[in-house]
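## tool: complex_structure
## caller: assistant
## args:
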Amino acid sequence: MCVLLDVQGLSKRFSGVRAVQDVSFTVPEGAIFAVIGPNGAGKTTLFNMIAGALAPDEGTIRFAGERIDGVTPDEACRRGIGRTFQMVRPFPALTVEENVVVGALLRAADVGKAKIAAAEVIERLDLDAKRHQKASSLTLPDRKRLEVARALATKPKLLLLDETMAGLRPTETDRMVAILRELNRETGLTILLIEHVMRAVMALASRILVLHHGAPIAEGSPNEVVRNPAVLSSYLGAEAL
Amino acid sequence: MIAALLDGVPRRVLALLAVVLALLLAAPFIANDYLLTVLILILYFAYTGQAWNIMFGFAGQLSLGHAIFVGLGGYAAAALYVHFGIAPWVGLAGAIALAAACGALIGFLAFRFGVAGVYFAILTIAFAEFARIGFDHFNWVGGSAGLFLPVANYARNDLWNLRGNPAMFYYVMLALTVAAFLLSHVLLRSRIGYCWLAIREDEQAARALGIDTFRYKMVAVVISAAMTSVAGVFFAFYYNNLFPEQVFHISRSIELILAPIIGGVGTLFGPIIGAFLLTSLAEGLREVMTAFGFDAPGAKQVFYGICLLVVVILVPDGVWPPLARALRLTTRRES
Amino acid sequence: MPAEIYLNIAVSGLLTGLVYGLMALGLSVIFGVVRVVNFAHGEMMTIAMYLAIVLFAAFKLDPLVMMMPIAGVLFVFGYALQAGLINPFINRPEHSQFMLLVALAIIIVNVLLMLFGPDARSVQTAYSFDSFLVGALIVDATKVYAGAAAIVVASALFAFFRFARIGKAIRACADNYTGALVVGLDVKRLYALTFGLGAACVGAAGSMLVLLIDVTPTLGPAYTLLAFVIVITGGLGSMPGALLGGVLIGLTEALAGLFFTPSAKSMFAFAILVLVLLFRPQGILGKKPS
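## result:
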């Protein structure tokens, strides 16, 4: 199995606060990898470094064999890393279709082809009925799906999902999990997700990394991690078992 | 190609546009000279408003110093004409090149150094003021005393040298406005248009989708500057004189943005509707005032200010969007 | 050129710069707290200047003596403006607020134009042509009084923000809007108060400036711009920065007027602005944005 993402010794501090401390892990192609941990554990900072929004202070990030630490966000996307934001950021005045077309334009030769590609993604994310609705008028679950659709339209090799399930009802969560599982199965898309909703994590992830105060405290299969005493005491609590 | 242009535009809109265009084409035969000059003014503001709109309404970069591009364009073409006898249609190349270079400079400085929002607007003001004072001391083009174009008699229309009667200028301005309108339409539904709107809505999110926002913002500024400079050339040859104090003054820049803001920023028809509304109401006000024998310099500007105030408070998206919805003319693309 | 001339010009520029600094202080306070880009700042000062002119013409009242009442009038104007017109705009997009104040500026300039006409007016007091001799220095009396008044008013403002309870409350709003709401501060009222204070500053500065320059209705925009240059150069959110920026710009203007033509002096202010925006956007004394 080929390694798609290889993070080694990644660190980042913000004026004295060590947000991420010496984090290392690898994500094989086609896997679904989850990063969990309490708030402030450094998960989004980690994502931001992988996606090019922040430059790491130390460490390296290798994507498909090439170093990408310090690369710009748009360059990271061009190389095949798509991302969503923790606070969803749709283009409010644009319709659902137009939002996704913006994403699709990265790989499409012109607007016409982008629209066709966008239509496929919109269909997959169950947004077809709302394609002509303005993004500002969408409900939160729809916005989350739009966020995923838009990132997906850039045909990424690696999709970074930042707390996509937050704020969703259990049925909505299950729907999103089903969509992501299907994507992974059918297209082999590698997914790296930050999540608090353990229901989704357990259903999706083949491997989990746990961060606490910016440092890794556990890594392994879902069953291993969920029984890890350090993880239980810092984050999950005994009820998780 | 025409089919591609018209694709997706509702029939009602096309019909209305056809009627308006027909009226505008016939105007010189129906209207008197005074009305014609008012129409020229309206088209001028519609054109410059559309050019400015590309930078702000589409790409989200607020320029409050746009008069610099009008001035640079006008002075470039006028200087070439006065000093070397070069016709304006050729001088246009010089005008566009100069304005585009200036726009590129402003854009590069601003976008490389992360100057955005209000600070960007202030930067554009600073550049325009710089130009105003600079040209005041630029004696090759007349300095503060102004640059004057030789005025021939208007018996013959010289389209090549842009010397002629109001009707000739009217058709030139009409052609420019229609061209600006078509260009904006094409840009809006192209890749550039989508990327611009994305940048306007949320630049960080746009970058996360692989858009090189620096490049697209630069393109917006350069296109806007180039388009505006053409209006400057027209201005120079229509009024036959250029004074730095007037041409580069901040009130020109503010005047330029009134029409698109009142009409509707970011929309295709906004600048045109805004220009019609603003200029015709202002002229109407002036007529009423002279009828009452009331002559106050500055009254027209107060009127503009009040219009702007009312629009900003009551219809911040401009007059056109609610109007279009009421007339059921909206295409899905009108933001 | 003998050194005394440089010194004279520099001191002159410094004193004028103090008045500029006071004007900019008003803008700094408004922008720093309410976060509104007051594009009508210079225009508000012009109102104050015309008030001073009218009072002087009608009652022979010295502008410096009338400084407090004029500042008071501007305070009320600013308070009403913020409470009535601007407060609803707090959460609107930046350019909307901007346009609101641009509209106001246009209206103010042209109403003044309609009322007073385009001709320049000035105030000639008894001491308008006096000067002080300090060693080799010859300094205009008007500039000395104006500069001194500027320092007094600025100090009063600093003290207010440092020691008065309301002053601290206003600083709290600036630092943390939500936090201020949570502790029960009436933020809207405090915003109105702040705008009023900023307007009062500008009113006081106007009363001083009227002794130094001729007044026309179209003066407004140039001084709005100047205020922004000063505030951005000195540092947004820094009150000493505004004064420092004012003095710097006053000096630059004076010296530029000496070395180049006087009309080109504002070019240097703009050149400084561009350099600051590019290389040190937080200004000399400003804090780096987090």
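## assistant note: The first helix of chain B runs from residue 2 to 6. The two ends of chain B are 25 Å apart (CA to CA). Handing back to user.
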